[in-house]
Structures are given as structure tokens and as C-alpha cells.
Amino acid sequence: MSDTAGIASSDDIALFQSVRSAMATVHEAVGVKVRSQHPKAHGVVQAVFQVQSVPEAYRVGVFAQAQCFAAWIRFSNGRETDDRKPDVRGMAIKLLGVSGEKLTPDESSDETHDFVLASHPIFFAKDAKHFLQFLGMKGAQGVEFKKDLYDKDLRFIKAFLKASIAKSLWGNEGSVRVMLMVDNQFQKAFELFPEAEKISKNITSLK
To answer: Which domains does the chain have, with CATH numbers?
Structure first.
């Protein structure tokens, strides 16, 4: 972040440093050789990031005035290696030549600014405080990420996220419809409907 004076409060800066410290702990535990999120890139392109004139209330940092920045953009998949499969798509933008004070002490002289975007409309944490609470619970409870278990339950995890969104849009009925798609017992029963219908007709004809 640039031009932080009067924008970021002491509480904001403290929260940022806490999140940064917590993420550093996570990286020490799981390593950073392989990206845990958005590992597959579609490509990296050079770009020009053009800032238009914005309302006065939003004229802070890189949006303080109409200007252009040289930039790099990385496009990626959230988890999938197969582009044909549904997934969250990422777009990370790094601006170059951005002057001003930065919040991170070891990057105070850097002249870059990052934007991280995703194609999904909902993020699992509602704000930075919520995300920090998640990291704290993960560390306190000794939760360990195991890819084999994650892959095993991935179908259910995706369905649960879809069901949560469906519930917010269409209520419990929408949520139940989604979850039934991954309910093995329901799917098996559904497959038996035609056979059950035949048996029912045979019984009726005998009468």
C-alpha cells in the first residue's frame, strides 16, 4: 500500500502485521517450493494499468490521480491442473513504479503494488480479522493439511460450498438439491426408480 498517512490506522497496521506473521508461520510449516493455491499459471503478460479519475473519497494510493503504471499479470487456476474442469480462476496484477510508503518494513523501498483477484464472488473469510481468526484456530488446533485426504473429500467440499451459496440465494430447498447430488444413497435409490416402477406395474397387473 502506498501513501498510508491518514488512511491506515494503527489498528489496521497491527492487523496487517499479525496476518503477515501468521502466514509466515504457515509457510515455514508447509514450505514454499510449491504453491498451495493457484499453482498452475496460464501465462504471464505485460500490461499497462490505467487509473481513471475516481470520486474524491477513493483518491488514495495508486488511485490518487489519473495515471498509468507498467504492470505484470499472472493468470492461473485455483487448484485444477486440467483447464477443462470447473475451478476458480485467478488474476494477479503487479504494478511497477509505485512510489510512496509501504506497510511492510522489509519492502518499504519497493516500488510495486499488488492486486489479487479471483473469479468466484465469495471468499471464505469475510475480512482480514476473520482470516486471522481462521489462521489462529488452525494453529491452535494443530490442523494439518493432507493432500490425499483433501483430494478424497474434494467432491463433497465443492458441493458444500455450492450448497452454502444456493442456500443464500434460494433457501434450504436450493441447498438440499445441491447436497443430494453427492449423496451416494440418494443417487443409488434414484437409479432404482425405474426398476421399482416396473415391479409396481407387475404387482398391479397381477391384481
So the answer is: 10-145 (2.40.470), 149-206 (no CATH)
- Return d(Cα 192, Cα 189) in angstroms, integer: 5
- Tell me what pLDDT residue 3 has: 45
- In 3D space, the residue among 132, 150, 149 whose CA is nearest the CA of residue 25 turns out to be 132
The residues, ordered by sequence, that sit 6+ positions from 166 with a Cβ below 8 Å of its Cβ are 174, 175, 177, 178
CB atoms inside a 10 Å sphere around CB 90: 20
Question: What nine digits make up the cell of 26?
Answer: 504457515
Q: How many helices (H) and strands (E) does the chain have?
A: 5, 4
Q: How far apart are CA 202 and CA 207, in angstroms?
A: 9
pTM more than 0.85: no
pLDDT tens digit sequence for 131-172 = 888 777 665 555 566 667 667 777 777 788 788 888 878 888
Sheet containing 67-77: order of strands: 41-51, 67-77, 89-96, 112-118
Report which DSSP code applies to 52. P
172-180 and 147-170 are packed helices; what angle lies between their axes, rounded to 10 degrees? 150
The letter for the amino acid at 50 is Q
